[in-house]
Amino acid sequence: MQSLFETQKSMRQKRRAALQRGVVAILDVGTSKIVCMILQFDPSVQMDASSGMGAVASHGSFRVIGVAKTRSRGVKLGEISTMEETERAVRTAVQGAQKMANVRVDHVIACFSGARPRSYGVAGEVEVETGSVTDLDIGRVLASCDTPYFGDGREAIHAMPVNFALDQNPSLSDPRGQIGHLLSVDMHLLTIDTRVLQNLMACVKRCDMELAGVVSSAYASAISALVEDEQELGAACIDIGGGSTSVSVFLRKHMIFADSVRIGGDHVTSDLSLGLQVPRTTAERIKCIHGGVVATSMDDRDMIDVDGQTGDWDHDRRQFTRSEIIGIIRPRVEEILEEVAHKLQAARFDTLPGQRIVLTGGASQIPGMEGLASRILGQQVRLGRPLRVHGLPQAATGPDYAAPVGLALYAAHPQDECWDFNVPAQRIGAKPMKRAMQWVKENW
Question: CB within 10 Å: which end of the chain, N or C, has fewer?
């Protein structure tokens, strides 16, 4: 964890410098599309974060001055598989956004899915040395957390303190300045495959930019799709992307669990391509225009004309009923939702006060998805659209833009993490695993 700690602190410094200059790019590297947005800030507007510890400055309002999207290349299951193709796609998106904004950016904050995320709930406690809690005590208690052994090739991408306790007061967001003797903290660690992060950093560097921050798409999607009450009382955000489906659980405005299912909308397209024996581009169009997961008697009579690859309409013309298309789509969607249900069960989601489920991502727009998800997941389900941000084009306000919009909100109002504090370096990761328990089960 030590090397990543230094890397994260370095990226935090680059982000502060970029935001002080007033312009920063955000990059969503997905399986189906790559989106770049350029944000413009007022360097004079900086205030303390409205929630949490407030160690990181909030840069207040911003506006989007450039947006570009391109088809993703060289990315499978949310991970870079072909560096050169991904580099060309990233360059295309960044150059398009820079042209629209008429400005050049050198720093980028990125998010990605996949990478086999794994959540840990850890805790630590220390005695307050001076009677009242200071910044030094915060660093000491964070360093005292019983960090589990992640395994080779895995590192923490997020290390978020979600709750502090001081003596008999069990729920504090900021204990600094308060009088007490025993300070404890609950922290959420999200680890990923190190190789995936290294490939992303290498890709950004090859595009002549510097990485000023990296975020899990599960977290980014949730902060844009969940409303304030849902984040407070307990809710899950299910981001059904092209190559994978991200799952995140929020409580008391903090992410307490994240995971992913390595199935997404592209697998639905592949099923249609094989089942109907049509090209993938045709299958994608059929999914978007005629797709669904609930068949009615009308769908048996709704005939859909499909052409072939040769261009000879009379020879290639084929017809399918909408019921046939739904019969191919529904089993794959059910598989995705059943895997999501297993993830939520592992997170003890049924013990939370709220239990609202929000669907977002491109594949969440398939008609009938909300009703099917409600039946399989057994909870209240709604379709989530990202929050409106100033300057965002109408075409970029759909559920498929939840991750990039959430990344923009994160850039403006970052949440405090372990590397934002003066944590004693020699203590990080030094303790053996003592309390690697289910986060919700033990702490909530």
Answer: C
